[in-house]
Amino acid sequence: MTERNHFLIFPRIMTPDSLKRLREWFRANAAELPWRPAGLDAPRDPYAVWISETMLQQTQVSTVRDYFTRWMKRFPDVEALAKAEEAEVFKYWQGLGYYSRARNILKTAKIVAALRQAQEPCKMPETRKELEALPGIGAYTAGAILSLAYHQREAILDGNLVRIFSRLYELDFLPTDKGSANKNCTEIYWEYAREVADSPKAYMHNEALMELGRTVCKTKSPLCETCPLRGECRAFQECRTTEFPPAKKRTEKSWHGTVLVVESADEKILAVNGGQKFLDKQLALPHFESARHATVALPAKAEDYINADEVKSVEYCGTFRHSITVHKIECDVLHVQLLTKAKASHLPTENSDKPTAFEWIEKAKAFETFANSFSLKALKKVFC
DNA sequence: AAATCGGGGTG
DNA sequence: CACCCAGATTT
Questions:
Q1: Which residues form the HhH-GPD domain (predicted)?
Q2: Which residue's CA shows the smallest distance to C1' of B11?
């Protein structure tokens, strides 16, 4: 048995013929999207490709649409973005989630801007190696920039292509599964992706497959009767589309905690950046794990954030639910009012094992300062 | 290889 | 409420 046997058993499906039908389907059905303004054959702006593809990670097209348009208006190119403050970048990202993506985008913009030659505009790198070395750019995004913007014969592999390949070839495993025989599961999928990209029309094949996966080869109730590839799709022919790709198992975790809305005598709110269970590395309200219904007294853990002898009052303001990936969070909200004005002495000294920054925010500006809905929900419990 | 990271939309 | 969605990074 060789590592090639997979391809010997399964004959080639993405033939020049089927790829041609894919392209014709795409020309006839391509949606109008803000990141494909100049026709399907025009090379894209690499910066726009980078931003849109990053926004589209784990976020649906319909949601990204408006975010992308707003973003490009404020940060039209790498240079404009590189000069921005992280807080403002977060505001333009607010609601998309996965804030590390926004942080990495800014990091990469600064790196690319620093590479700029004198008098020349900033330009995204043009090789896979250079792109993948940048923060937030992995194999998928690098392939998207290289093919869609530079029209190189580079492959991409995202959830849409995985679903299509799994059904076309009845692949009963996911790229993330453990390797079998001599072949890594990821590599099998990438080989199919490279086959499709081995063409001067790679840019269109890649985008057409993503569009096909989004609008036709959907996870639930795929529209096989309109699919240009139904003639060679094994899962369709055997009426087994619902079996592919195999479902991935995920473990859910429930977590109960307390979030503090600490208000100083001069009406400022304590915010923390770093060292927390959730929303690490971004400005959020202080929170910690606690038992249910344990909010009658101020938990000892809260002394990490405030000095107990400066507390004027502690009020329980309710409980809210919030989901962060697999975590189902239930969080009690405490409104802690202090006798003293905001000052550095309120900050902890020896409790933090991770780098932690603290900030006092004007109460009136609190709602526009936090970029995550976890903190916003807690504020709402107290002030709304 | 597995865990982690958010929020909005949909049925 | 459960599930889905154009992945990357860390452990």
A1: 55-215
A2: A220
Determine whether the distance from the CB of A129 to the nearest atom of strand C is below 7 Å: no
A186-217 tens-digit pLDDT: 888 999 999 999 999 999 999 999 999 999 99
What integer pLDDT is reported at residue A77 of this predicted model? 96
Q: Residue type for A94, please?
A: Q
Q: How far is the CA of A9 from the C1' of B7 (A)?
A: 42
pLDDT in tens, A210-229: 999 999 999 988 999 999 99
> What's the confidence (pLDDT) of residue A343?
82
The one catalytic residue among A32, A53, A263, A350: A53
A53 is catalytic: yes
Ranges of residues in chain A with a pLDDT under 50 are 1-5, 7-8, 349-352
Token reading at A326: 């697999």
Nearest to A144 by CA among A51, A80, A62, A228: A51
Q: Do A39 and A87 fall within a single domain?
A: yes
CA to C1' distance (Å), from A238 to C5: 27
Which residue in the block uniquely carries the two structure tokens 């530079």? A150
Span CA (A59) to C1' (C5), Å: 5
Which strand C bases fall within 7 angstroms of a protein CB? 1, 4-9
Which residue, counting CA atoms, is nearest to the C1' of nucleotide B5?
A98
Question: What is the residue range of A228's domain?
Answer: 5-243
Q: Which of A186, A210, A243 is the last residue of a domain?
A: A243
What six digits make up the tokens of A312? 């004027």
Q: Which residues contact A229 (CB under 8 A, 6 or more apart)?
A: A13, A18, A21, A22, A164, A168, A212
Q: Do A233 and A119 belong to one domain?
A: yes
- In terms of domains, do A259 and A226 share one? no
Query: Are A325 and A344 contacting, i.e. CB atoms less than 8 angstroms apart?
Result: no
Strand B proximal to A341 Cβ, under 7 A: no
